[in-house]
Task: structure prediction
Amino acid sequence: MALTETGIKRMAPPDKEKLVGDDRGLYLRCYPSGRKNWLFRTRVGGSWKTRNLGDWPAVSLAEARVKASTLSGKNLPESVGFGALLDEWFERRIIPRYKAVRNIAVYVGKGKQWAGNDRLSSLTAARLVGLLSEYADASPVAANRCLANWRLALDYAVERGYIERNPLERTTTRAVGGEEKSRERVLTDEEIRALWADKHAHGPLLRFLLMTGLRIS
Result:
C-alpha cells in the first residue's frame, strides 16, 4: 500500500526497527527512537543492494519518490494522466459499489475528453475549474455533479499516493455551476383529480393546502 505524508506522521515508533514499503523499491526504515529514513532497495545477482536516500521529514515523501524513480528507471505515479486516473477510480471504487453508474461514466468521459492527457502532477484548480465552468455555461447542474465526481477521483489519487494534494479540495459549486435551488413543482390536472378523490386520512389537509397555496415548513 502506498505511503502518504499523513500516514507517516501518524506512525508510532515500533518496538524494533522495521521497514515499511512504498513502491518502486522505496522503503521507509522506522526506528524505536522515532527516527525515520528513506531507503532504495533492489536485488542484484540474488542479493539486496540498499541505498540511503535521507531522513524523513527533511526528505519528503515526494522527494524520496523522485530519487527512487530515478534509481529504478521507472515512471513516477505523478506521471499518470488524469484520464488513466479516472478509469482506475471508476473501475476500483465505483463499479464494485454501485449498480447505477451511467451518470458517473458520463463525467469520467468528460474528464478523459477534456484533460485525459494532463499529468496529475501538473493539474491545477484553475485548469479544472476552467473546464467545468465552460461545461456549466450549458449545463450548470451537470457541471456541479461533474465537480463532485472529479473531486472524489482526485481524493482517491491522494490515497494511492499518486499526488500529495487534491487540487479541487477547496473548490465548491459556487466556482462552477453556482448554488442550486429547488424547482417549483406544479401538479398536472390528472394529479389534482387523483388527490381530490384520495380517501387517505390526510386527504382533507392536502386538499386545503392545494386550494389555499399554503406550505408546511
